[in-house]
Amino acid sequence: MLKPATASVSITPEPVRELAVLRQRIPLWRAEGLRIGFVPTMGALHAGHLALVKHAKTLSDKVVVSIFVNPLQFAPHEDFDRYPRREDADAALLAEAGADLVWLPTSDLMYPQGFATKIELTGPAEGLETDFRPQFFGGVATVVTKLFNQVTPDLAVFGEKDYQQLKVVQTFARDLDMPLEVIGLPTIRESDGLALSSRNAYLSAEERDTAARLHAELHAIAETVQAGGDADASIARAKIRLEAAGFGPIDYIALRDADSLALPSADSRALRLLAAAWLGKTRLIDNIAV
Ligand code: AMP
Fold first, then answer.
1. pLDDT band at 11 (very low <50, low <70, confident <90, very high)
2. How far is it, in rounded angstroms, from Cα 257 to Cα 276?
3. Over the stretch 263-275, which tens digit does the pLDDT of each residue have?
4. Residues 6 or more apart in contact with residue 219 via CB below 8 angstroms
5. What DSSP line would sit under 46-87, residue for residue?
6. Cα of 184 to ligand 1 centre, how many Å?
7. E strand or H helix at 26, and its extent?
8. Could you give the CA distance from residue 176 to residue 79 in angstroms, rounded to a whole number?
9. Contacts of 64 (CB under 8 A, 6+ apart)
10. What is the DSSP letter of 133?
């Protein structure tokens, strides 16, 4: 377990579990004129998370990483209970990546008795993930807003791995005048193209071999679209191949406007191809620029 730093032993990054302590540390940094970067996570950290931390480090003087498995963004039948929790390994990785403080709130601290607030989202939060996980972005928006208010960062770094989430966070941060910059970073992948994810730990060895097919099929569709081919037909063919490889159900494979996540139109400056599909008991998501 992470232990609080004592006077004689200094642990980097400092684990903080109490809001009062966090609210002492941050103003001290701010008083020194330091710029504060923030990376929210659910832990079980991998090289994707660490890339965000290292990037935040290049843009700020101090980097805060939160680890909190947010119950609000899981439906009752989802994987909240079995979501991997690896606090010691995470602490060692964060020390290597150069994080300065780890914020470790509890569910009771985040959602005490009487918590009664919901954030309503439209725009990029509509469709895609919301069609299959209707609770998801409300839970994300609530926890991220609370974390931003607790940490008060100058900037926050999110992964494009969760592209719709990145667009949702950028939109509510802008709409609600949150005084920080929300920066997106490209997806970190395994050598065969599989996007790193804490949930990859659920995959059997056989599923792990199959999992990279999702990314390969997204590339095949993107190539067709770039060559002027029919996106819908290409997506339909990719779904058939994925199902034959063992995927299913395929929640969606969809081509969208890269900014608004609305259906592509003549005004679309860039497109994004997004997908979510089950492989056994694991739900994989991925997306690429088109
Ligand atoms: P999570 O712990 O899954 O909530 O993710 C925390 C942050 O890490 C989010 O901003 C994710 O988009 C980001 N992230 C997760 N996996 C990757 C990856 N493979 N590459 C880049 N960022 C990632």
1. low
2. 17
3. 999 999 999 999 9
4. 193, 288
5. -HHHHHHHHHHHHH-SEEEEEE---GGGS-TTSSTTTS---H
6. 10
7. helix 19-31
8. 31
9. 26, 36, 37, 38, 39, 99, 100, 101, 102, 103, 151, 153
10. -
- Residues 68-95: tens digit of each pLDDT: 999 999 999 999 999 999 999 999 999 9
**Residue 119: both structure tokens together:** 């954030």
Q: Where are the beta strands (DSSP E) in 145-270?
A: 155-159, 181-185, 247-257
Structural tokens at position 206: 């056989």
State the pLDDT confidence band at 4, using cuts at 50, 70 and 90: low
- Mutational test site, ligand 1, from 42, 49, 68, max ligand atoms within 8 Å of CB: 49
Q: Which of 161, 191, 202, 286 to mutate to test the pocket of ligand 1 (most atoms within 8 A of CB)?
A: 161
Q: Residue 12: what pLDDT?
A: 80
Q: How far is CA 132 from CA 126, 137, 245, 284, in A?
A: 11, 11, 22, 13
Question: What are 101-151's pLDDT values in tens digits?
Answer: 999 999 999 999 999 999 999 999 999 999 999 999 999 999 999 999 999
End-to-end CA gap in the chain? 43
Catalytic site residue 77?
Answer: no
Q: What is the pLDDT of residue 8?
A: 40
Instruction: Please indicate whether residue 159, judged by its CB atom, sits closer than 6 Å to ligand 1.
Output: yes
